[in-house]
Amino acid sequence: IIFGENSSIIDLNPSGRSVKKLTCDYDWGYYRHLLNAKFALTPRGDFRWSYRFFEAIIFGAIPVLPKADYDPDTMKGYHVYFADNLKDVDLNYRYDLALANFELLVSRHSLYSDAYQSEFCKEQNRC
Q1: Could you tell me which residue, 21 or 121, shows the higher pLDDT?
Q2: 32 or 49, higher pLDDT
Q3: Please, which pLDDT band fits residue 30 given cuts at 50, 70 and 90?
Q4: Three-point CA angle 47, 71, 12, nearest 5°
Q5: How far is residue 104's CA from residue 19's CA, in Å, rounded to a whole number?
Q6: Which residues contact 15 (CB under 8 A, 6 or more apart)?
Q7: Which one, 9, 25, 53, 59, has the greatest CB density within 10 A?
Q8: What angle do helix axes 95-109 and 51-58 make, rounded to 10 degrees?
C-alpha cells in the first residue's frame, strides 16, 4: 500500500517488488507509484528490515511503519512515522526530512559522490 499526495491509498501491490534481475523485467507500476508517493508503508519483511524501507527513501517518500518493526541497528537516524493505527497518524510531508533520509542512505549504503544531490533535486522538481 502506498500513500499519495492526498494521504489516500493509491495502490495495493500484493507482489511486492516483483523484480526479475536477469531479464530487467521490473514492476514499473510499483516504482511509478512509489515515485509519486509522499509516504510509504514499510512493514518489516522476513528480516529485521525491509527493502520497502529503503525503496521508499530512494524515491523520496517518508517511511511509515509499526513501532514494533523499528530496528535501531538499520534505521537509526532516519526520519519515519510510526503507525500502529493509521487513523491516529498525522502525516505531514517534509521535503527536508525526505532529503535527509536520502543523504543518510547514500552515505551509509553506497560509494556514490555528491553529484547525486543535484540529480535528486531535479527529479523531485525542488531545486
Answers
A1: 121
A2: 32
A3: confident
A4: 60
A5: 25
A6: 27, 30
A7: 53
A8: 120
- Measured between alpha carbons, how far is residue 87 from residues 11, 77, 84, 126 in Å? 18, 25, 9, 29
Which grid coordinates belong to 93?
510531508
**38 pLDDT higher than 90:** yes
| Residue keyed to cell 531535479 | 122
Question: What are 89's three cell numbers?
Answer: 497518524
pTM of the model: 0.66
What letter represents residue 62's amino acid? I
Q: How far apart are CA 43 and CA 36, in angstroms?
A: 19
Q: Which residue has the cell 517511511?
A: 63
Torsion of CA 74, 79, 84, 89, to 10 degrees: -170
CA distance 26 to 43: 21
Sign of the alpha-carbon torsion through 72, 75, 77, 83: negative
Cell of 58: 530512494
